[in-house]
Design goal:
Layout: H1 6-25, E1 32-37, E2 40-46, H2 49-52, H3 59-71, E3 80-85, H4 89-97, E4 102-107, E5 132-135, H5 139-153
Helix pairs in contact: 1-5
Length: 154
């Protein structure tokens, strides 16, 4: 399956969903992320802001940090970022700064999404880099994971 194909996107989103489950098991909002370059996973992450006492410990940030360390370069120009929830402003900003080529996400986030829901930083004409964004991949699975997590907390 070539990178960027619909079936490949689903496989990689399922990997991100498994990481989101890991976050949920730790009491964190269930979001997982995977960075892929040349058809190889080079970074993974899941939400950890509560346990790490770090407001920047989002899944995307962890995955981007791991990918940059694996490549010994903060620029990940041909990489794709898969994440179970539409990235917030901080996370899409980090993806832009890393020169990520594609962002593929699951569920839309009307409260904090910065790829088209609340606002769209990926189409900001003054941005230093353009990111291709594809939302809705495995959206139902992503939404269900979030729904179950928040239902259990009520």
């Amino acid at each position: 399956m070539p990178a960027g194909s619909p079936s490949r996107d689903v496989v990689l989103m399922q990997r991100a969903l498994a990481l989101a489950e890991r976050a949920a098991q730790s009491g964190e909002v269930p979001v997982g992320a995977v960075v892929v370059m040349a058809d190889e996973v080079i970074g993974e992450g899941w939400n950890q802001p509560v346990s790490a006492h770090d407001p920047t410990a989002h899944a995307e940030i962890a995955a981007l940090r791991a990918a940059a360390a694996a490549r010994a370069n903060y620029r990940l120009e041909s990489a794709s970022l898969y994440v179970t929830l539409e990235p917030c402003a901080m996370c899409i900003g980090a993806a832009v700064n890393a020169r990520i080529a594609r962002v593929v996400f699951g569920a839309w986030d009307p409260k904090a999404g910065a790829c088209g829901s609340l606002f769209d930083l990926t189409r900001e004409p003054r941005a230093t880099h353009r990111v291709d964004v594809f939302g809705g991949v495995c959206a139902e699975a992503s939404k269900e994971l979030l729904r179950r997590f928040f239902a259990a907390r009520r």
